[in-house]
Amino acid sequence: MEGYIKVKAKTKETGTMISRARPRNIVVDFMFLTKENVDEVIKWCGGWKAGLIGIEFYSQLHDSYDKAFYGNYVIKESDNPRHFREYSPIEFEKHFEVIDNAST
């Protein structure tokens, strides 16, 4: 069954139980960070340049500051305007499927 994760849980009452769960479906907005679009990404997420490596921004989700390097994705949960997070290309492809690719 695609999209399901098997989870084994042991309880006093029933012994070992096997349950199913699926990843929470959320829609995110994202931008791929490059040296060419760094100013646009900074304006979008409220960040600032972090030397020659990329940008830093405040993540309300973690109540901390996060860095995104050139070649990484910056994502924002569509229903919360201050939940920004950074993903490497490998992690982004593992967790997300592009449903609407903005034209540039």
Structural class by SSE content: mainly beta
- Which sequence of SSEs, written as H and E, runs from N to C? EEEHEEEEEH
Query: How many strands in all?
Result: 8
Alpha-carbon distance between the two ends: 37 Å
- Reading side by side through the largest sheet, how are the strands ordered? 3-7-8
Strand content: 35-45%
Q: Which oligomeric state applies?
A: single chain
In terms of per-residue confidence, which ranges show pLDDT below 50 for 5 or more consecutive residues?
1-12
Radius of gyration, whole Å: 18 Å
* General form: globular
Average of pLDDT: 79
Let me know the largest β-sheet: 3 strands, antiparallel
Give the SSE map.
Elements: E1 5-11, E2 15-21, E3 28-32, H1 38-45, E4 48-50, E5 54-59, E6 64-69, E7 73-77, E8 84-87, H2 89-95
Antiparallel strand pairs: 1-2, 3-7, 4-5, 5-6, 7-8
